[in-house]
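To the team - heme C complex, inputs and output below.
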Amino acid sequence: MRSRWLDVRLISLCVLLSGVVWLIGISAIGSPTPAAQYGRPLVLHETRETPLDLEVAGDLIGLAPGSVRYLKRADLRTFPPATFLVRNDPNFMAPTRVSGVELMALLRKVSGHPQTDMIVAVCSDGYHANYRHSYIEAHLPLLALLLDNKPPKDWPKDSETHQQDIGPFLISHPDFQPAYKVLGQDEIPQIPWGVVRLEFRDEATVYGAIAPKGPHASDADVQDGFRIAQQDCFLCHNSGPEGGQKAQRPWTVLASRAAASPDHFAAYVRDPRAENPSAQMPGNPRFDDATMHALTAYFRTFAEAAKR
Ligand code: HEC
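Output:
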């Protein structure tokens, strides 16, 4: 026979349980992602499950340098959500509502050293977009999970050839405005599409690979050329293990071209197709003589270093 006490305790347990169920119900109805989910401990998976997972690598919190892990979309949705109507991103043919995760939130939570690390976004074709700490602070770049509320399979194709998928990830900004000029050249937005991997890397190491060399390293024109090359050339051209792999022409090749034939180098950089009809490299018609002079002076420091 059951005692009355047990009955009372059973009844209170039922009341308590129904209260919990009610609370869960309310929070699930109240918002698509319960607020309690944000700030959940980060889980980095050892294996990729779908092509839509984000690969993360480099300096990952609590892991050996150079580790590679994966974040599922569900993991990315546990970060505080950010949504902006973007009107001035050349990757979009029309104003687009971009929803996703701010790179600053990713840097803070995923990197082993958020104060000194940067983010390198790597695309499937070897293109690299580089996000220094100062850039992330100034421009609030966002890793897009949804465009106009749609997942990557429903995203439009690229805005240039209209043939290529722009997912699984792309990076946009709420409203990019150049923060500085070098020799009349505006800062350019870092807006990669086809992003498959984010690397968390020591900023000094990454840019150290392309710091000018030799006796002219600190000349003003060389330093100006360095800043332009960082944002305009490092996207596709590499220096050793750092920088983009898309061009398959490393810094040493550009250096020898700049040293051997500055005129041809300048002509190529401004209008590659005029020099090589099958060139894939985009032209830089906006580069004036002062800009080309600085870039050439900068790249030549590597050729001089190689000779010594
Ligand atoms: C979007 C990718 C991309 C960017 C950005 C880029 N390049 Fe290139 N570059 C290429 C590719 C690809 C090639 C290989 C030839 C071709 O298809 O044009 C190349 C080739 C070159 C060459 C000819 C090398 C040779 O073999 O003779 C030079 C010089 C050059 N790039 C300089 C630059 C400089 C300087 C910058 C920065 C102002 C730059 N590139 C930015 C993609 C790029």
